[in-house]
Amino acid sequence: MPRKALYDLQAVLTQAIDVLLEHGYHGAIMDEIIARTDFNRRGFYLEFGSKQQFLYQVLDHYLHTQLDPIVGLLEQNQGLVSVHDFFDAYVRHVRGRGCLLINMITEMGFDDEAVRDRGRHYLDRLQIAFIGCLEKAQRHQQVRADINLESTALQLTSYVQGFAVNAVLAGDTDELSLATRALLGPLATE
Amino acid sequence: MPRKALYDLQAVLTQAIDVLLEHGYHGAIMDEIIARTDFNRRGFYLEFGSKQQFLYQVLDHYLHTQLDPIVGLLEQNQGLVSVHDFFDAYVRHVRGRGCLLINMITEMGFDDEAVRDRGRHYLDRLQIAFIGCLEKAQRHQQVRADINLESTALQLTSYVQGFAVNAVLAGDTDELSLATRALLGPLATE
DNA sequence: TTTCACTGAGAACATATGTTCTCTCCAAGC
DNA sequence: GCTTGGAGAGAACATATGTTCTCAGTGAAA
């Protein structure tokens, strides 16, 4: 029997996230991807077939292991508390590195439908989760009754993307945490 | 005497914006840049020296001709009216194509200090302009007295970046206009 | 211990791509 | 009209980069 592969696919995908975050898709060259993952060229093409397919798998791995748990906080659907929890976790996550999904959307959204689809799906999910939390918060008089739920949710969704961009430029994210409070404050009941 | 150059530098830079918006920096190859601008290879390297220097000039041209006029609306400093004017113009601007500066920041912000600097400068300018408008609005009782100006301004700044990302995914931007109203509504005095 | 299917490392390859060079042609001055 | 310095188009070049191939080495099974 042959020896079995030494690399751990999950670990490789996780390591690749950093390379793609730093240099983008086209800027991340195979040599660096190979060098910075517990991987080798042969295994790479046996496993993924191409750099593009590799991207999709990294992206899905990223969504599943890193974004899902954070969005999951929002889907706890505990009203304003969930919204706060979500933003806290998200700010911590994008701190100093941004969001891989957002980066891929802005870099290749025009050319790559698969990336665009994942982006739309993610934004839809955020939007729906925000609406759920805001509904519950409104029922419990945590937020003003006169706000439009859908618009406010879309606003929060935009805000999340803005964080991802700012995080690339801002070393620390303390000010982003402050901004979160400013965002949610005016929504609250007096 | 030789004949003089036929190309119009300003026009070339403007045409290049679209190419870079569509494919990003690394994704935009010289062949397409040459083909889609009133330009030729020789003139290109005589004028810019390299693709990277070219990017900086396109970026500055973009900032000067497209973003400046929009941020200028905010710097009119007419309180909430200016904020509304700004968002209207910005939403129209990013509609279906996004923002070149934001795209460059997310694609190469980690590697390119010059891009990062331009991004920071732009965000600072937005932040200051928002603060100015909010101050004035507060003095005129257009917005609640209990909001923190800096945090709210930072929140609006983040929101702007979020627009740029959403615009890549969302074909139409009507819903973004709606969200803006929802954003500014809760800030207003009762 | 021997076998051998498969791994890992990197050489090799083909193509893509940023950059430079060549050559023809034009238009302003004589 | 002739000259000529620079423009325009694209061939040519060198390198970068995604992909494939080769081959020695390894570890489980017999």
From TrEMBL, chains A, B:
DNA-binding region per Swiss-Prot/TrEMBL record: 29-48
Pfam families documented for this protein: TetR_C_13 (PF16925), TetR_N (PF00440)
Domain named HTH tetR-type: residues: 6-66
Segment forming the signal sequence: none
InterPro entries: Homeodomain-like_sf (IPR009057), HTH_TetR (IPR001647), Tet_transcr_reg_TetR-rel_C_sf (IPR036271), TetR_C (IPR011075)
Keywords: DNA-binding, Transcription, Transcription regulation
PANTHER family documented for this protein: HTH-TYPE TRANSCRIPTIONAL REGULATOR YJDC, TRANSCRIPTIONAL REGULATORY PROTEIN
Name of this protein: TetR/AcrR family transcriptional regulator
